[in-house]
């Protein structure tokens, strides 16, 4: 299996860094971005297979960032991270082309499963 | 929680002058309803006043003007009519007199005429005249000296009776007239008569034929040519003595109060008497110094006008009443409808506010869930990291230091969650009593000095205080007020990127203590201005802001019966004003 490249976009430093750390030990090439703007900047120079995008972020929220990503690199699969009360943003994200949404706080395995499904889809494998 | 029962998210009516001002006020729906009612009451008064000024007053002015013109024209017509009657009657009288003079003059040329007529001849003359007109009373034949040569009539006569002292005689002889009409006199009889006389020359000598006539007959003739018009006619001489007058009046006892000027052949005047005004027209006879007068009371002359005026006045009043009533009821209905619509609008606003309140409760729940979920997610993820460390499969560093580092992250996340629940509890507590005197200047100084040591340290912020030395104390607890100002100061500091000024001003304003906090920060976008008091509304990312600070501040100020007002210009700065009552 090729190395899976994942970008975690969340303004919560502790959360983002912990997830990145846990994905890394699972042989996933994970990196973090603290805002939508930062994510778009990173995308100019780097490529990812899957992006995990928090919905609620200051300045540019997840939905807005998703729109930009889909314009910039439509082949990248995006997973939305939502709270219980903001499921509708997850659904909206899927309407805008996101692969799926995961509700916070989610066990890592659930997130990782979704990431792998998204990766399979990108590679044209059954998911 | 009590705080949310009276939601401060009621942005029902924006009270700011521009989009960048938002007053955090607690709208009183009853007061608004009263305002609406007062507004429509004033509107109705204005409309009714407009009806009176715009319709009724001009109507009244026009009617008055029309009445004046109508009366004037009608009076002129009455005057012209009366003058025409006088003129026509004068002509008839002149013809009447001329005919009788011709009758008299014809006697000179009759077969029986002789310069020495016998009494039979005279009687025959009188008979002939009376056959023509019963007005003839007697007849006399005089010589040039006025001596009566012959007489026939009901009165006794005497020899050598002379008329040379009579006015008519001198008129006939000295003024060389062909005929004269003399004024009324009693003569030899008891009833008054007037004289007509004519002259002829025979062999160079003058002879005079004179007759007297009954003025009452002439009056009857005058009445007969009046055709039943309500006009009184009479004849006066130059002195105003009545010559021919109503049968009931005694011509010798009364003179006319009106004597027309002899210089004007005819005319008409209005004479104001004791009881009523009269219109009097006159026309002077051509050969005789008599004037024919026609009289008519103004009231009679204007009878037609009074009736027309009455009909017109009633008509105008009725039309005005109908129009006014219709307009008044229309105004009433329109104003009532508009008021009801405005009141419904107000109710709708209140329903909207209520809906917004419900929505804000949902927003609160969502906010709480999100804010709590974030630290929970961190806790879950970090405990997973520890589990990974303990998993030999991953060959991670699982020294006690490494585990401790992860546990600290968990502690921090748990503390953050606790902070949120604590703040929510504080919001509930803000409804505690406001009953201890509190010096706002001292409180502000204290809050600012604490902030200078901590929050303001990382930036260059100049604090300018302009405190009123005479500021009265307010009844409030210090702790909640510290939170109010502390939160506003922290926001001001956050709005300033590196360096700036925060100016704090205190003063009294209409029974309130006013605290104004101006900052030179980045300002608040107009679309955010209405939401800044909403719980969990924040523009600070990365878990820095909970979005509860201003929400808590607003709850506390509201509890102390105060208001918070915010003005902001993007890129220039923001100004928060807290008003707290001290009375």
Give me the secondary-structure topology.
The complex is a heterodimer of chains A (127) and B (583).
Chain A: E1 4-9, H1 13-25, E2 28-33, H2 36-45, E3 50-54, H3 62-72, E4 77-82, H4 87-95, E5 100-103, H5 108-122
Helix pairs in contact in A: 2-3
Chain B: H1 2-5, E1 21-24, H2 29-106, H3 119-132, E2 136-143, E3 148-152, H4 167-173, E4 179-185, E5 193-202, E6 205-213, H5 215-225, E7 232-237, E8 242-244, E9 266-272, E10 277-284, E11 290-297, H6 298-301, H7 303-390, H8 400-429, E12 437-438, H9 440-453, E13 460-466, E14 474-475, H10 478-495, E15 499-509, E16 512-519, H11 526-529, H12 549-559, E17 563-569, E18 573-581
Parallel strand pairs in B: 13-15
Antiparallel strand pairs in B: 1-17, 2-3, 2-6, 4-5, 5-6, 7-8, 7-11, 9-10, 10-11, 12-14, 15-16, 16-18, 17-18
Helix pairs in contact in B: 2-7, 7-8, 9-10, 10-12
Walk me through what this model shows.
The complex is a heterodimer of chains A (about 130) and B (about 575). With about 130 residues, chain A is α/β, with parallel strands linked by helices. Chain A has a single domain, classed as Rossmann fold (3-Layer(aba) Sandwich), CATH 3.40.50.2300. Chain A has helices at about 15-25, 35-45, 60-70, 85-95, 110-120, and strands spanning about 5-10, 30-35, 50-55, 75-80, 100-105. In chain A, helix 3 (about 60-70) links the parallel strand 3 (about 50-55) and strand 4 (about 75-80). In chain A, helix 2 (about 35-45) runs parallel beside helix 3. The model of chain A has no long low-confidence stretch (mean pLDDT about 90). Chain B is rod-shaped and about 190 Å long. In chain B, the strands form four sheets. Chain B has a six-stranded mixed beta sheet with strand order 1-17-18-16-15-13, with helices on one face. Chain B has a five-stranded antiparallel beta sheet with strand order 3-2-6-5-4, sandwiched between helices. A five-stranded antiparallel beta sheet of chain B has the order 8-7-11-10-9. Chain B contains twelve helices and 18 strands. Chain B is an alpha+beta fold and about 575 residues long. Among the domains of chain B are: about 230-305, 2-Layer Sandwich (Beta-Lactamase), CATH 3.30.450; about 430-580, Heat Shock Protein 90. Chain B has helices at about 1-5, 30-105, 120-130, 165-175, 215-225, 300, 305-390, 400-430, 440-455, 480-495, 525-530, 550-560, and strands spanning about 20-25, 135-145, 150, 180-185, 195-200, 205-215, 230-235, 240-245, 265-270, 275-285, 290-295, 435-440, 460-465, 475, 500-510, 510-520, 565-570, 575-580.
């Amino acid at each position: 299996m090729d190395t899976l490249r994942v970008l975690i976009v969340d303004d919560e430093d502790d959360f983002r860094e912990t997830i990145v750390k846990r994905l890394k030990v699972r042989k996933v090439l994970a990196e973090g971005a603290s805002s939508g703007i930062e994510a778009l900047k990173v995308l100019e120079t780097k490529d990812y297979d899957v992006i995990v995008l928090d919905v609620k972020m200051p300045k540019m929220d997840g939905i807005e960032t998703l729109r930009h990503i889909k314009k910039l690199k439509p082949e990248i699969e995006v997973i939305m991270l939502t709270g219980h009360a903001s499921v509708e943003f997850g659904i909206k994200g899927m309407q805008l082309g996101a692969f799926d949404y995961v509700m916070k706080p989610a066990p890592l395995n659930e997130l990782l499963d979704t990431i792998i499904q998204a990766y399979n889809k990108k590679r044209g494998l059954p998911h | 929680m009590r705080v949310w029962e009276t939601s401060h998210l009621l942005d029902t009516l924006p009270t700011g002058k521009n989009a960048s001002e938002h007053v955090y006020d607690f709208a009183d729906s009853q007061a608004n309803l009263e305002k609406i009612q007062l507004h429509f009451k004033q509107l109705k008064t204005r409309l009714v006043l407009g009806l009176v000024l715009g319709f009724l007053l001009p109507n009244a002015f026009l009617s008055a003007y029309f009445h004046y013109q109508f009366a004037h024209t009608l009076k002129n017509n009455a005057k012209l009519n009366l003058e025409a009657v006088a003129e026509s009657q004068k002509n008839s009288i002149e013809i009447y007199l001329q005919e009788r003079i011709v009758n008299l003059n014809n006697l000179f040329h009759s077969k029986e005429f002789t310069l020495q007529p016998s009494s039979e001849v005279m009687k025959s003359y009188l008979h002939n005249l009376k056959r023509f007109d019963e007005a003839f009373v007697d007849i006399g034949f005089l010589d040039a000296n006025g001596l009566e040569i012959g007489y026939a009539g009901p009165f006794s006569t005497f020899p050598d009776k002379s008329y040379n002292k009579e006015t008519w005689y001198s008129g006939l002889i000295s003024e060389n007239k062909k005929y004269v009409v003399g004024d009324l006199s009693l003569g030899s009889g008891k009833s008054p008569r007037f004289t007509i006389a004519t002259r002829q020359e025979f062999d160079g000598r003058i002879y005079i034929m004179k007759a007297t006539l009954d003025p009452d007959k002439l009056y009857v003739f005058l009445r007969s040519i009046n055709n039943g018009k309500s006009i009184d006619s009479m004849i006066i001489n130059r002195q105003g003595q009545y010559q021919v007058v109503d049968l009931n009046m005694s011509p010798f006892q009364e003179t006319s109060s009106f004597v027309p000027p002899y210089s004007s052949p005819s005319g008409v005047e209005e004479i104001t008497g004791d009881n009523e005004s009269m219109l009097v027209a006159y026309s002077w006879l051509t050969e005789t110094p008599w004037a024919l007068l026609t009289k008519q009371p103004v009231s009679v002359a204007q009878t037609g006008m009074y009736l027309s005026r009455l009909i017109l006045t009633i008509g105008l009043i009725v039309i005005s009443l109908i129009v006014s009533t219709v307009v008044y009821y229309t105004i009433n209905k329109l104003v009532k409808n508009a008021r009801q619509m405005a009141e419904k609008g107000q109710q709708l606003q209140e329903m909207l506010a209520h809906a917004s309140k419900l929505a804000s409760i949902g927003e609160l729940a969502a906010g709480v869930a999100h804010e709590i979920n974030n630290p929970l997610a961190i806790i879950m993820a970090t405990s997973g990291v520890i589990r990974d460390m303990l998993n030999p499969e991953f060959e991670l560093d699982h020294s006690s230091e490494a585990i401790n580092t992860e546990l600290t992250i968990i502690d921090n996340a748990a503390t953050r969650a606790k902070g949120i629940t604590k703040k929510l509890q504080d919001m509930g507590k803000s409804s505690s009593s406001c009953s201890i005197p509190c010096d706002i200047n001292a409180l502000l100084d204290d809050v600012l000095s604490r902030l200078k040591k901590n929050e303001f340290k990382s930036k260059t912020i100049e604090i300018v205080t302009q405190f009123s030395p005479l500021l009265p104390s307010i009844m409030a607890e210090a702790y909640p007020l510290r939170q109010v100002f502390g939160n506003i100061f922290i926001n001001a500091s956050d709005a300033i990127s590196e360096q700036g000024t925060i100016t704090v001003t205190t003063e009294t304003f209409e029974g309130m203590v006013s605290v104004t906090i101006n900052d030179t920060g980045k300002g608040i976008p107009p679309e955010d201005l209405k939401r800044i008091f909403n719980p969990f509304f924040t523009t600070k990312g990365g878990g820095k802001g909970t979005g509860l600070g201003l929400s808590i501040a607003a709850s506390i100020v509201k509890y102390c019966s105060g208001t918070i007002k915010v003005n902001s210009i993007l890129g220039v700065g923001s100004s928060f004003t807290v008003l707290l009552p001290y009375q």
